[in-house]
Write a structure and sequence with these properties.
Elements (H helix, E strand, L loop, with lengths): L6 E6 L2 H9 L8 E5 L2 E5 L1 H5 L6 E2 H7 L4 E4 L4 H15 L7 E4 L3 E5 L1 H16 L4 H6 L2 E4 L8 E4 L7 E2 L10 H24 L3 E6 L2 H10 L5 E3 L5 H6 L11 H12 L17 H7 L2 H8 L1 H11 L16 E11 L2 H23 L8 E12 L8 E6 L11 H21 L7 E13 L4 H7 L8 H25 L21 E3 L6 E3 H14 L1
Parallel strand pairs: 2-5, 10-12, 11-12
Antiparallel strand pairs: 1-7, 1-11, 2-3, 3-4, 6-7, 8-9, 13-16, 14-15, 14-16, 17-18
Helix pairs in contact: 10-12, 12-13, 14-15, 15-17, 15-18
The structure holds a DNA duplex.
Amino acid sequence: MSKSLVIIALDWDAFYCSVEEHFNPELKKIAFAVKQKGIICTCNYVARARGVKKLQMLVDAVKQFPDLVIVNGEDLSRYRDASKELWYFVRDMVWGGKVERLGFDELFLDVTEMIDYNIALLDNLHASGVSQRSVDSAPFFFRMSKEDESVGFSCPLSSVAGNLATGSLPENFEGDNLRLVLGSHVCHYIRSQILDIKGYTSSGGVSINKTLAKMAGAAHKPNQQTVLFPEFAQDFLDAFDIGRIPWIGHRSKSIILDAIYKGSDGVNDTPEEDRDSTVFTVRHLANKHIFVNSLGQSSGEKLWDLLHGIDHSVVQPTSDIPTQISIEDTFKSLTSLIEVHNVLSRLSHSLLERVQVDLMDSNGDWLGHPRTMRLTTRTRSSGYGSRISRSDSLPAIVFSSSHTSDYIVDYLVDRCWMPLFSKLIGDAKAFDIVLLNVAVVNIEKAPAKSSDITAFFGKKKPNDNDHLQDVHIEEPVHKRAKVVGEYAKSEFSDGLAEDEEDVVSEDDSCDEVCVVCGQRMMSFALEAHMRFHDFGE
DNA sequence: CCGGGGGCCT
DNA sequence: AGGCCCC
């Protein structure tokens, strides 16, 4: 019989607010909310006690709570930085670095190895002749390090730390149950360290898989933790609406309910308000076949398992290198190319900064290279939530150290983002953009620096790594020529493709200024830029 | 009057 | 390229 995993889910309380309080402690005492554009995205617990809700409209909130303090949270950099810092802090405590990040404020920890090791220590105590009773009643020192026996904490083996998900204790504290008891103490220790050293409160859940741990953690907030023993998992889940189970979103819930409550003739035989959507009812009205038929094999099986407390997904240690980096902004309306051009310049500048900060180490070496750039929009007509995107290969000039950021940004906007935009809107003579998102994706991990390898072998030979990188950088420029050519044929521009060879040359001294709008740009961009004005006006 | 991200699967 | 999921 195999032993169960021990998974901890951690969730920073009111995260954006906690970060704001970190920078401005005065906020701790007052009711405040973090807004993004016209919406309250979160609020601290003082505000929640007064009735302020998350995802409430800003206008409604200030009407209802005139003295509510509002903090702008549209720039995520401080939240991203704090999130990373807390993630690294926790990861250093978990053996094998088995920590997965979900959003900015949640972590999954697989502490199975640490539990196994400490259970083995405990078994040795039992085997050494001391009576089980005296071993179990004395405090146990849980070791958080294999190397340093002083690192760890004392904990009882006869009680759990924090809350019990269903309020009742398991029949025994043996086997997998004992593992979760230890897990609850690990969770408590880690949360204490985060509070003592980093100053952030958190909520924790402990169970045998990610979903049960996450749901347990949500049961008691803020600054609390909850353990869910597997023998209570089904009772715990049965009381929930299926839409409250993580990974069952709006769409899946609606598909499931339709499959259950619509007759086979397609006639709606149960009105919406009479549809019971608790896990218990859905489990008894449906079966795995119904789930697989309506949701597909993979999703169907997965969601059916979730309703029964089964989650085979593993904690995937989050990479130091993100899989994508994106910057977006929303607008009332963008209808002219020059507006789009200006916004793309701003977004592109932020994106380049993000790429440089997130993908370069402290030595200035690249950790990874995005190979693709993607432009995403939402138009007024495309409907809320629906996005349209186009992508293309990312020119290597982004990784060049011999150009200024301004030069690279101008190059990207005129030669890449604007062509992608024209590809995106196609033949449309008019457009109405409400969202623009620029992203780099397909981030290829950079090979370890060869200087590290020579250091490893004790040699210090001068290497031409930088030269190799230059050769590598140059190559996609030729691919770029094709896109430039297409752009040149578009109705916004022509004749641009003639001299792509000197596009990445050191020719950034020839700044030009648009006589129409005053926009500063590189010479190669001016002709295309003037076409924007022709188009828009 | 309608966040700004991010991940995986199809 | 889009859909659906998460925060």
